[in-house]
Amino acid sequence: MSIIPRLLEFNKQFVEEKQYEAYLTDKFPDKKIAILTCMDTRLVELLPKALNLKNGDAKFIKNAGAVLTQPFGSAMRSILVAVYELGAREVLVIGHHGCGMTNLDTKGLVNKFIERGVDPLAIETLENAGIRMDKFLRGFKEPEEGVMHSVKMIRKHPLFPKDIPVHGFVIHPETGQLELLVEDYREDAQSSVNG
């Protein structure tokens, strides 16, 4: 049975009781930050609480592992829009320990595609067209590797402004403890921001 009827029933009551009023804000991030993070369910409420963020404080961009796999994909587009259109002045990339993208078995995942009915010819066609599954389904050995990959891709992006700092963190998904990996990896970041 689908979860949709229960969701809609709750939603109707939520709106009728005006519970949404506690979350009213606008589209601009009050703390002027954009956060690229993992879609892990443990981070949905924990991450904002661990950073003392409330609704409206930040733009959250989520994907598997907080990893940018393509410089012109939807996650990078979201970061650019957050900066240029919505006023974000800093970007945080936050990975986490125990991530499902750690040591991801790309071949095993492709086999699961086939087991669920994806035609192996479709996968072969994609590979022949230059969409390599090992790049598209990129994982990492340690979350730090994934975070630094994304930080560097953002900073090197030809459309990303030089004066916006990009920071890297890893969070513990049970305690919320943050580990700073890099406070804007560029050596000249402070002079660019202050000068």
Automatic annotation (TrEMBL):
CDD domains in alphabetical order: beta_CA_cladeD
Reaction(s) catalysed by this chain's protein: hydrogencarbonate + H(+) = CO2 + H2O
E.C. designation(s): 4.2.1.1
Binding locations of Zn(2+): 38, 40, 96, 99
InterPro entries attached to this UniProt entry: Carbonic_anhydrase (IPR001765), Carbonic_anhydrase_sf (IPR036874)
Alphabetized GO MF terms: carbonate dehydratase activity; zinc ion binding
Keyword list, A-Z: Metal-binding, Zinc
SUPFAM superfamilies given in the database record: beta-carbonic anhydrase, cab
Keyword field contains Phosphoprotein: no
Cofactor requirements of the protein: Zn(2+)
Cofactor binding notes: Binds 1 zinc ion per subunit.
Name of the top EC class for this enzyme: lyase
Family: Belongs to the beta-class carbonic anhydrase family.
Name of the protein described by the UniProt record: carbonic anhydrase
Species annotation: Paenibacillus arenilitoris
